[in-house]
């Protein structure tokens, strides 16, 4: 494992008027690992992700990337560092094909003309490197893809653009068993290739199937960040619902 986390949050606080949503939140994301971010509705997961992605600016705390303190004031700042957030319903455009989606806003041009051949070659190579073989054609509209295929294409897009931290927001929420397994396999490959992956999920089976660490939020605070091998399903549920695992020596 690397000596320092790829992304580290220390003492993050965020309020909206009189409502304090995040209080002294800490999170470490290591390269080559999947960190599951769990918590009940209202625990602060979405606000924390928006602070990481530059949509919100924290009121307090420090963000470190590769061990150095950084300021993420906008989504452009986050993208410049290599942080990519893949939202469940907003990652792709239905009316565009796979290649167009993967290069949206970053098209390759030669003499002012789109270099379709190069873009298609790069998109295909990225999918192959992630062992994604369920897509019949790179030129089919995304609207014709299954939910699992859409998620794998969105993940491949993040890899194509050299993202270093990929945050996945409930990527399997609307998928069947086979499609969920397909997406989780790609998530694992993503981490195995050296990226830091944050998986936001309410599904404990998914969390334990693919994650290396679990970070639990409770009422806007970090309840614990632990290795998956050190906790049980029941203990994680207790962290989510009460903020403590009830076991001696549990990190908090």
Automatic annotation (TrEMBL):
<dbReference type="InterPro" id="IPR003593">
    <property type="entry name" value="AAA+_ATPase"/>
</dbReference>
<dbReference type="InterPro" id="IPR050107">
    <property type="entry name" value="ABC_carbohydrate_import_ATPase"/>
</dbReference>
<dbReference type="InterPro" id="IPR027417">
    <property type="entry name" value="P-loop_NTPase"/>
</dbReference>
<keyword id="KW-0067">ATP-binding</keyword>
<dbReference type="InterPro" id="IPR003439">
    <property type="entry name" value="ABC_transporter-like_ATP-bd"/>
</dbReference>
<feature type="domain" description="ABC transporter">
    <location>
        <begin position="7"/>
        <end position="244"/>
    </location>
</feature>
<dbReference type="Pfam" id="PF00005">
    <property type="entry name" value="ABC_tran"/>
</dbReference>
<protein>
    <submittedName>
        <fullName>Sugar ABC transporter ATP-binding protein</fullName>
    </submittedName>
</protein>
<dbReference type="GO" id="GO:0005524">
    <property type="term" value="F:ATP binding"/>
</dbReference>
<keyword id="KW-0547">Nucleotide-binding</keyword>
């Amino acid at each position: 494992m690397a000596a320092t986390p790829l992304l580290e949050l220390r003492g993050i606080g965020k309020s909206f008027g009189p409502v304090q949503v995040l209080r002294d939140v800490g999170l470490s994301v290591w390269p080559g690992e999947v960190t599951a971010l769990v918590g009940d509705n209202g625990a602060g997961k979405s606000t924390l992700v928006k602070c990481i992605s530059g949509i919100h600016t924290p009121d307090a705390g420090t963000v470190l990337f590769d061990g150095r303190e950084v300021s993420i004031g906008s989504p452009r700042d986050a993208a410049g560092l290599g942080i990519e957030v893949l939202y469940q319903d907003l990652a792709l455009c239905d009316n565009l094909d796979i290649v167009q989606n993967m290069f949206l806003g970053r098209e390759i041009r030669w003499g002012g003309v789109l270099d379709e051949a190069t873009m298609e070659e790069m998109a295909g190579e990225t999918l192959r490197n992630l062992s994604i073989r369920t897509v019949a054609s790179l030129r089919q509209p995304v609207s014709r893809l299954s939910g699992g295929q859409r998620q794998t294409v969105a993940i491949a897009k993040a890899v194509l653009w050299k993202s270093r931290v990929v945050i996945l927001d409930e990527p399997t929420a609307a998928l069947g068993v086979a499609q969920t397994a397909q997406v989780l396999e790609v998530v694992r490959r993503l981490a195995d290739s050296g990226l830091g992956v944050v998986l936001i999920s309410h599904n404990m089976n998914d969390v334990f199937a693919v994650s290396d660490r679990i970070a639990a939020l409770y009422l806007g605070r970090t309840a614990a960040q632990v290795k998956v091998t050190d906790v049980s399903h029941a203990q994680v549920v207790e962290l989510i619902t009460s903020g403590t695992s009830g076991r001696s020596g549990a990190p908090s």
